[in-house]
Amino acid sequence: MTRFPLVQVAALLHSAAEELIAPRWRRLEADDIQLKAPGEWVTAVDREVEERLSIGLKALLPGSAVVGEEQCALRPQLLGSIGAGLVWLLDPVDGTGNLVAGSGPVSVMLALLEDGETLASWMLNPLTGVMHHAQKGGGAWRGSQRIVARRASPPGGPGIVRTRFLPEEFKKHLAQTALEFRAGSNCAGEDYPSLLADNEFALYWRVLPWDHAPGALFVSEAGGVAAHLDGRAYRAGQQQPGLLVARSQQTWDRARALFPPLER
User: Fold this and answer.
1) Between 6-16 and 44-60, two packed helices, what is the crossing angle to 10 degrees?
2) Superfamily assignment of 6-147 in CATH?
3) CA pair distance 53, 198, nearest whole angstrom
4) pLDDT tens-place string over residues 134-146
5) Does domain 159-256 have CATH number 3.40.190.80?
6) What is the pTM of this model?
7) Can you tell me the distance from the alpha carbon of 39 to that of 118, in angstroms, rounded to the nearest whole number?
8) Which of 50, 167, 239, 245 is disulfide-compatible with 92, CB 3.0–4.6 A?
9) Taking a C-beta distance cutoff of 8 angstroms, is the pair 152, 44 a contact?
10) Under a CB-based contact definition with an 8 Å cutoff, are residues 160 and 182 in contact?
11) Which Pfam family, an example, fits this chain (predicted)?
């Protein structure tokens, strides 16, 4: 397994957050904001953070590449490169819509991949300075505190269901069940850690790797489960829609039974 500079990565993320994101919170100008796709915002802050971190991360680990969300918006073919070699997978500002609105959480999300396997991940709230991070085989952490998934006995608490991209049959099925679910915070860097405390599961249909690779490792290292609806473990770069994440296998199984079967 590749050695990587954990402490230096955290310092780099904190620096970008403190200097580029926090000062612009609720101070964006109209020309800082663009609509890059229907319902999808990008800001000058996203681009500035991605540019700075791309330079810094490649310097920390020579020979590595950076694949960022904003790069991929311009060159979607970059997604095909994340399964080979050392790749930093970066979402410079997760929750850009919240940044634009000046409400709700945002996060800097980062994962280090080697040949497609997630080795480490970081999720930094730039407004509070709270860092959630994980290392494959090394556990999940909130700052210096190790996090272990809290078990509910029996499982039955609320979950997060992102309905925006769900197929119509899933939406109809949800309307007919007694499933208690929330919409989430529009920020995966906030919602993934919440699965170990306030929520029991989360269902996502669209599976963009920078949204899910960091959190999936974090939840898995805490004792939870991140798997596609057919039961296959999540791996960054797999584009099969439908990702169910839960704090335990028991909770995953229970939540999965509440959703319709996959079409054959």
Assistant:
1) 160
2) Fructose-1,6-Bisphosphatase, subunit A, domain 1 (3.30.540.10)
3) 31
4) 999 999 999 999 9
5) yes
6) 0.93
7) 29
8) 50
9) no
10) yes
11) Inositol_P
